[in-house]
Amino acid sequence: MEKNKIYPHVYERMEDWPIHKLHQDRKAFVQEITDFTVERLKKGKTEDITEMIGKTAYLEQIRIKEEPWKIDPPNDRSFWKKIQKRLVKKVLDEDEAKAKAANQEILTSIVNRYAEEIVATFKIKTFLFARKFLTFFFSRLLNTAANRNFRRFFNSRRHQLGERMKISGEIEKVRALMKKGTVIVLPTHHSNLDSVLIGYIMDTFGGLPHFSFAAGLNLYNTGYTAYFINRVGAYRLDRRKKNPIYLETLKAMSNLAIQRGTNCIIFPGGTRSRSGHLEKKLKMGMMGTIVEAQQALAAKGKAEKIFVVPVVVGYHFVLEAPFLIEQHLRQTGKDRYINVKDSSYSFRKILRFAWKYFSNGSEILLTFGQPLDVLGNFVNEAGDSFDQYGNKI
Asked: pTM for the whole thing?
């Protein structure tokens, strides 16, 4: 098998990584998200804002009752009950001015709570440990699988991971653009392991700085997983929360992080693909924040550009394949099929997937497409945009 090329790191010092700089200023960033989101939400009619807050509190209490997780704050129930009481006492039956001021106060409290939950941290020491651990784990597992002998797990010769994890396409151009602006990677989505594997391959073989990515809040239910994911710059995403205040806070976080120059991984389809094909329909929630961020930078008179890079992830095996097939059958057959729980997060499942992957000579291939600006124009290594006729814009 052809050995993968290993590129030197774009930044010599990890302290220069945009994601590190963002989390060094975490407190101010959370406050910025809060102010930005509240400013957006308070522009509606007073009665509409009151209704939105009431609906959010109602939905959150249903979530607490029907879908409780270990990671949920211990004061979750009391917090939302207090929100409802404040809404009744300070907003309802009050004059317009008092109701408006009370709504803003309550909104600020809710949004700040969401922002604190969403924004994690980035610790260089934790990242370095995770990098070494993943290299050791993948190398030893690959070697053991190749020999089909667990007794030789710690003693046999280490195989080169570069023979199995490969990076191709416009990687040279992407590397050049890293210091020209902010790079947003838009990969295909097959597995809940995608973010970890994509990040590892880009860092280890592509020499790219670490990217921010979404991690489902349910991953934080286990202590070890929560400890590491919370400290490698992933932002926390709670898919149980569908209310407009949470969604607006999430989009504000993405928008402002990109404006601060943070490179991000965003899955354009929003969910895992059963077929592995490119998404035909894009979810514009988080995708829209890329355009908004570029608009905001232009409005502030800043010349920084945001570059969008499509990436195709190629697997021979997908961890959640049985669940994704079952999901398709449920959607097709509706009540004729029994609901099956997605247990893809168990360590046993992940280990089995990794063992199957390495023991069958499989590869994971990251193919970088042509980088684009936010309007869909191709860009060169210098970050210049060109129209469909090759004219510089």
From this structure: 0.85
